[in-house]
Amino acid sequence: MNPESLIRVTVCVNRKLGTTEDEFNKYWAYKHGPLATEWLQRNGIIRYVQYEDFEAAFLDPHYLKVIQPDEKNLIDMDTISVTIGAEYVVIDDGKIVKEHAREQNPEDQKVEQPLKDKIILITGGASGIGLSLTKQCHAQGAKVLVSDIRTTPSFETFASSKPNILYVQSDVTKWSDFDKVFAACEKKWNDVPDFYGICAGLFEPPFSHFWNDPEENGYKQVEVNVSHPIKLTRLAMRKSLGRSKKSTAPLYCATKHAIIGFVKSLKDTEPLTGVKITTICPGLVNTPLFTSDKASQFSFAESKALSPDLVAKHMIDLLQKKEYVCGTMLELSMTGPRLIPEWNIPAPEGEGTGQELQAGEMMKALLGPIEASLAKEKGTSKL
User: Fold this and answer.
1) Which of 52, 117, 206, 298 could form an SS bridge with 85, CB 3.0 to 4.6 Å?
2) Under CATH, what is the fold of the domain 108-364?
3) CA atoms of 186 and 163, how far apart (whole Å)
4) Judging by beta carbons within 10 Å of its beta carbon (0-12, 13-18, 19+), is residue 76 exposed, middle or buried?
5) Cα separations in angstroms, 39 against 11, 44, 91, 97, 372
6) Where in this chain does the record put each EthD domain (predicted)?
């Protein structure tokens, strides 16, 4: 043990004329302090800090009435020099400090499970909301496992030369493909996902359309929009329990009443499974799902539609922030986010919710293709 005592030197300086306190503090923390670190380390300095001035403390009535009079019994008040307040540390325990906790974004302090260095599985991650989620998660330092039936040029351009993005071709209606996805994840990163972004979805495609009714062996749209989120949630529970880890799975819900009921039913299960399950319910979203025919039928207007990036941003909040507990249902419209209560849910309001449209014109556009399909079926049944 070194028997020598540490020597502390405090230097009191005045700010340069015309420099504000905020300018002084930040310049010292991010320019002058780092500039001096190598020289200080070389000369045996183990801690170098700046104390921010905090004059308001000496204007406190309790200080003026109680503490200051007592100080005169001990201190020569004419020669006193005081530093008080927060510290900017640039060398601590002989090591250079590059980040200052007091400069943290308050939003970061709400994060319960940061994405950085964690694995997220995103179904439908090559286009639309899923692609936006892929980009934002990668930007936060996550390892992104993308499961999609095919890639897109936009995804290929973004994912090119990024080792922390892994694409696995898969069909979410084939549950055996999930085994392939998890196997690829464990092969690359020797672990299972920490987060699940369930984004794959269909919106009235020609091959799976309730009113046109082209299918004979089940509804593909139900398999993608309902069965796949439910099955993947169950797999997330199993994988997380197998590795004794906590996971989060926000489900993308677009007019999927079954998913709302599913998430509600699991609101108390996190202590048992280790998986926090939430859902986001956006209004109209400007994605490739809105083809020209659907735009007309569903009164789609780009000016009243949410961007995929905005929806993905709120999905990341559901993933990370502790304020969104298991069972949270987050509605998102042009007016902003709203937590959906369990019962007595008021109708959404504002642009993009349909409430602002003329009911007669909206219903005429919506029902037109349906009425055309039904008209073809009239009188076609034979005894």
Assistant:
1) 52
2) Rossmann fold (3.40.50)
3) 15
4) exposed
5) 17, 9, 11, 15, 81
6) 17-50
Domain boundaries, the chain: 21-103, 108-364
List the one residue out of 283, 192, 276, 175 whose CA is nearest residue 227: 175
Regarding pTM above 0.85, the answer is no
Mean pLDDT across the chain:
80
| CB neighbour class for 8 (10 Å; exposed up to 12, middle 13-18, buried from 19) | exposed
Could you read off the pLDDT of 117-171 as tens digits, one per residue?
999 999 999 999 999 999 999 999 999 999 999 999 999 999 999 999 999 999 9
pLDDT at 108: 59
pLDDT, tens digit (0-9, with 9 covering 90-100), for 228-277: 999 999 999 999 988 888 888 777 655 467 888 899 888 888 988 889 99
